[in-house]
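Input record (one chain):
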Amino acid sequence: MPAAGERRHRASAACACDTGARKAAAVDPEIKAANRHRLRRIEGQIRGLQKMVEDDRYCPDIITQIASVQEALRGVARNLMRNHLRHCATKALRSGGKQESQAMYDELLELIYAHLR
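The corresponding structure, as predicted from the sequence alone:
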């Protein structure tokens, strides 16, 4: 059974970035490179967290590192939102009909409320 967010998205009208395989309409190369770099750094931070837990490090130190990883992930999400707004949302709002535009507004609000706090 799909997650609640997946169910909600499927129920809405097609996103401008729906190209059959659910790929973005376009991806800025700078954003992609920044996200890949940031995700590799986060991967290292996660390995560091695993070692901290294995080594029974002081709990507040681990929690501080978890907060750092969460903020780094929020940075990736902000970059993805920036790309989505520049390409997918812009395409839907400029070239789409009323139903497609409304679906994009709904999708953006859902993303903001659910993920980008």
